[in-house]
Write a sequence for this structure.
């Protein structure tokens, strides 16, 4: 158990809908990362937050947004969902977001029908 | 060409064999991560290294910065080592460290 929690574990929704994925980092970790894993693209970095502030952006679509709250949990919002958004979404956390081990959550499996 | 390439894509071994998985990268990096993804999907960080060699139990990771190459070795392999092994390059510097570029993974199957 990495100490990182993600909810929900599974999510099935329809095209055009909006969903919110939630991540609670390990106790004491200030940095949260979001990753998408799809069959065709593999793992891709989406976005990183540190202590409530956005630190870096990767291949995150305009339809997706994220935030990190004062209690350090983070949410990833996916809107106007398309079939191609079906994927595993992982969050990871680390202490300060530098050169350090990242601890991954169990992931949220999203299926868009 | 992907920025992070792994080989082989698939690997089948007999229990007890010595296993090597290779990772080459074309970007400048500040660190290289090795991750293990279990059949159920969970990801565990095995190593983070920026130079030399690290060892943890039966796992050894090495990196050659000049050649932009890293290897993950598993000694005395066991069926429970069956998983996908992913290398990831941390190409960020300063405040953007930690944003990883991933290889496609090596699927390892160890037969008893």
């Amino acid at each position: 158990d990495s100490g990182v929690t993600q909810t929900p574990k599974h999510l099935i929704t329809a095209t055009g809908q909006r969903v919110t994925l939630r991540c609670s980092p390990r106790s004491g970790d200030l940095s949260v990362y979001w990753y998408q894993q799809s069959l065709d693209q593999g793992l891709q970095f989406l976005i990183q937050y540190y202590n409530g502030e956005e630190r870096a952006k990767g291949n995150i679509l305009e339809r997706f947004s994220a935030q990190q709250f004062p209690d350090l949990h983070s949410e990833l919002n996916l809107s106007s969902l398309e079939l191609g958004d079906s994927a595993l979404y992982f969050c990871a956390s680390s202490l300060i977001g530098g050169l350090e081990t990242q601890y991954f959550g169990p992931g949220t499996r999203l299926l868009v029908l | 060409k992907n920025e992070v390439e792994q080989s082989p894509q698939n690997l089948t071994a007999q229990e007890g064999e010595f296993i090597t998985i290779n990772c080459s990268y074309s970007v400048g990096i500040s660190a290289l991560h090795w991750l293990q993804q279990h059949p159920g999907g969970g990801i565990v960080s095995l190593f983070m290294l920026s130079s030399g060699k690290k060892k943890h139990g039966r796992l050894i990771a090495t990196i050659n910065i000049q050649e932009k190459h890293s290897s993950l070795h598993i000694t005395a392999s066991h069926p429970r080592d069956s998983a996908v092994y992913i290398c990831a390059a941390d190409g960020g510097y300063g405040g953007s460290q930690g944003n990883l570029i991933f290889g496609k993974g090596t699927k390892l199957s160890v037969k008893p």
Observations:
- Chain B has a mean pLDDT of 91.
